[in-house]
Specification:
about 150 residues, alpha+beta, 3 helices, 4 strands, elongated
């Protein structure tokens, strides 16, 4: 290994470790937010408090829904090994409420984006009215002509 490679190796390892830590923190924060919405919708958090439950939790898809039918009833499961280290379990009504919460969040995010876009269009229109015939002659402080 060259001297440069030896000098860069710790930096590379630190960078990769930082990415892994950042990814783990992101999953934890995402899991906490999702967990609150699941509880609000009527899911129950079952802690992975035994070695068998912990091992099983690790085999499940992380933060993704699965469903099973037990005693003729469909149950929805979501494994969260990041924040609560638990399995969320809910019936069809809880799942429907959760999807309604998510749809509402998406709609409100979309509505906010549309409002920002409309405000930007209004601002451009206002700017054009303000500058009038001087629009092409104005030089802004950055030096870029508009």
């Amino acid at each position: 290994m060259t001297t440069i490679a030896r000098a860069l190796a710790p930096l590379l390892l630190a960078t990769l470790g930082g990415c892994a830590l950042s990814d783990a923190m992101h999953h934890r924060q995402e899991g906490e937010v999702v967990g609150q919405r699941l509880l609000t919708a009527g899911f129950h958090a079952i802690p992975a408090d035994t070695p068998e439950k912990k091992a099983h939790l690790e085999t499940m898809p992380k933060l993704l829904f699965s469903s099973v039918v037990r005693d003729g009833q469909r149950r929805y499961l979501l494994a969260d090994p990041y924040s609560c280290h638990c399995l969320y379990v809910g019936d069809e009504a809880a799942y429907d409420r959760y999807t309604e919460i998510e749809i509402g969040r998406e709609l409100s995010a979309s509505e906010r984006a549309e409002a920002r876009q409309e405000a930007a269009v209004v601002a451009v229109d206002r700017e054009q009215r303000f500058l009038g015939p001087y629009d092409r002659d104005v030089v802004f402080p950055t030096g870029a002509a508009r």
